[in-house]
Design brief:
The protein has helices at 8-21, 34-41, 45-57, 74-128, 149-152, 154-158, 193-204, and strands at 30-31, 61-63, 69-71, 134-136, 147-148, 161-167, 170-173, 180-181, 186-190. With 205 residues, the protein is of the alpha+beta class. It folds into 2 domains: 1-129, Arc Repressor Mutant, subunit A (Orthogonal Bundle), CATH 1.10.10.10; 134-204, Regulator of K+ conductance, C-terminal domain (Alpha-Beta Plaits, 2-Layer Sandwich), CATH 3.30.70. A 4-stranded antiparallel β-sheet has the order 4-9-6-7. A 3-stranded antiparallel β-sheet has the order 1-3-2. A two-stranded antiparallel ribbon has the order 5-8. Helix 1 packs across helix 3 (45-57).
Length: 205
Amino acid sequence: MPKVKEPRYHKIAQEIAEHIVNKQFVVGEKLHARSTLAATFGVSAETARKAISVLADLDIVKPVHGSGVEVLSREKAKEFLDQAKESRDLQTTHGEIKSLIAKQKEDLGNLEEAFSLLLDQTQRVRKNNPMSPYEFVPEANSPKLNQSIGTLNFWHNTGATIIAILHEDEIVLSPGPYANISAGDTIYFVGSDKTVEAVQQFFAN
């Protein structure tokens, strides 16, 4: 969504309102003709006319036929400036949010690309080195814990071969059928991709 450009006459209306708030133009004062205001603010007579119309609609000034423009209210001039500032602040915040969203989309795109690359590299490693082990930590409430590999009939039920168990700070390599699997243990095993899901389901049941 492109940034909305504020009309020139609206900016001039704000400048006139600022003069009123700062008491450079006081309530009851009659300002110069539109052509003089146009010269004062460096704009065309038409732009000055539109600016005066905006202020007149808000009862900040009142055009007086044949004698210029009368200043009516300093308070309403301040309200007009406050509302204009809020509008600018809202537009700025909107732009900042859009920038953040765009940045987030870019970051997500980069993350997706990195994940795809990791997946591709992992698949190539598995293909070139099928004996590269997987690792798995069973949930602490699994009913399969505190039993031996042989009792669990692990290979028959999962198709995976356990090559090591990390128990606390000790790694047990090539554990035999009598080795127990305890809570907190990390199991290292080899097998096909399907064995990963099989191992997860086995300990979850």
